[in-house]
Amino acid sequence: KVGDDGSRGAFIVLEGLDRSGKTSQCSKLLSYLEGLGHPTELWRFPDRSTSIGQMISAYLSNQSQLDDHTIHLLYSANRWEKSSLMETKLKSGTTLIVDRYSYSGVAFSSAKGLDFEWCKAPEIGLLAPDLVLYLDITPEKAAERGGYGGERYEKLEFQKKVAESYQALRDPSWKIIDGCQSMEEVQKLLQEIVLDHVIACKKGRALSHLW
Ligand code: FDM
Question: Which segments constitute the Thymidylate kinase-like domain (predicted)?
Answer without folding.
Answer: 14-188
